[in-house]
Amino acid sequence: MSIRLPARRWWALGYLGLCIGYTATTALALRHAWTLAALLLWLGLAWLFRWGDPPHARRAAKAWPWSLLPLALWWVYLYLADTFGKVDVGAVAFHLQAGIGENGSGERIIAAVVYTLAGLVMLGVVTWLVRADHRWRLLERPLVLFLLAFNPLLFGLTLQGASIVADDGAWLERRYTPPRIAARPADPPDLIYLYLESTEATYADRARFGDAYADLRKLGESGLVFHGIRQLDNTGWTMAGMIASQCGTPLMPAGLMHDSQFEPLEHVVPGVDCLGDLLADQGYHLTFMGGASNQFAGKGLYYREHGFETVLGRDTLRGQLTDPDYLNSWGLYDDTLLDMAVDRIRDLKAQPQPFGLFTLTLSAHPPYGHPARACRDRQGAFDGEDILYSVKCTGWLARRFVERLRREGLLDNTLMVVASDHLSMKNSAWQSLIAGPRENTLMLFGDGIRPGTVRREASMVDVLPTLLEAMGFTLPTHRAGLGASLLSPARTLVERHGVESLNERLRAERALQRRLWQTPSTESP
Prior knowledge:
Blueprint lengths: L4 H23 L6 H16 L18 H17 L4 H10 L7 H27 L1 H17 L1 H15 L23 E7 L9 H4 L4 H7 L3 E7 L7 H10 L27 H7 L3 E6 L8 H7 L4 E3 L1 H4 L16 H16 L5 E6 L12 H7 L7 H21 L6 E7 L9 H4 L8 E4 L6 E8 L3 H8 L8 E2 L2 E2 L8 H5 L1 H10 L2 H7 L8
Helix pairs in contact: 1-2, 3-5, 5-6, 7-20, 9-16, 14-16
């Protein structure tokens, strides 16, 4: 039996109402339960105004909606917002140019297919509505303007364009201090830097997250813990967080100003000196170890170009696994990686030259994490969705790693850093995360580090000068890059101007962006 036309009409209008409700709750970061309220409101208006079945209907069987492309762009935004929470145009631009292969987000491919199919169905429904109801044909042009003006994906580009016109584009460049070591300690300490993927200090709030951060809180009791480390734009993904903390500047993508904007990057921020460059000049042997592929997002390229002699990723380290099948979609699990890091540190400690070892965990990678076998043995079964389980796993593995190094004497004359790479993107605890202020994790441990707490408004660009001074190096004016040492009285840019003001300046900045991507062949005479 065929479905009657009125039934088809209400199915179509109902689907369109669901799409509108989902879009509204996603864009406004509301719980998706509000989608039902939006649906009921939409259906009420559809019944009141007889949408799709107007009196004196003037149908146009061949009419095509003007809004199809703007609506498709909204579906692109919805996919990105569902994946990351906050759509970062800079992150999209950088990853497209630096390379998105070799990533572990295979589940997002399935989501992309679902979003594509759902979007195509919606475009079909809108086409039917415009053809069936002449009133909607009249609304098409103002609807197009509305869809373009309020799409957050395009809104960010519009704000950036307006900032470029309104500002001089060199505000940050004038505040940039090229990193320079004025004096070194008699016996430079080794450096071990443990990046905790997406494990922000916001999780320390027991009221919202229970004991997810308990092991990191306990670990912090023996070190210097920093509070107030905010996130600036262009520092909110792994490569950007690493560059912010090591180079003292946000990662402003090369974009269209780059000579080879349609080709893969050959260099990553070649125009600035970063922590690796500075330490290599001081005679340090530098190593990076990560469980994921170094091909993703230009990670290996960045480290090799900035002073690191040894860069180890999934492709190299998987050959050392006793169980070759013990891998997740990104690469090595963290219990394996950190065991390998301990072995590497033992070898480096036996050498006469100072060393720096940097490593990055994967356990708390959004949306659900990849908790290691050691955590599942300790914490019980993982339901596959609870990010707090994965955060707790990361904290316990980090604490175990540091305490193991301490017991073996591997932290003698060593600065140990435990820090998040950036704030978490969208995960299963998202509504709780965005319910209040957020901050990154930053802890320092070492022979000359007195345990305690430092509360200052800062950002990840302040990490570079802070680490150098914690290691005993002397910096002119306590500054490096855009950062100020949090161990000094020098005021940070966040303290002076606030996060929102700095983000506005970032949208307008062009001079510092040119500095980041300026290679020797493009330097001015």
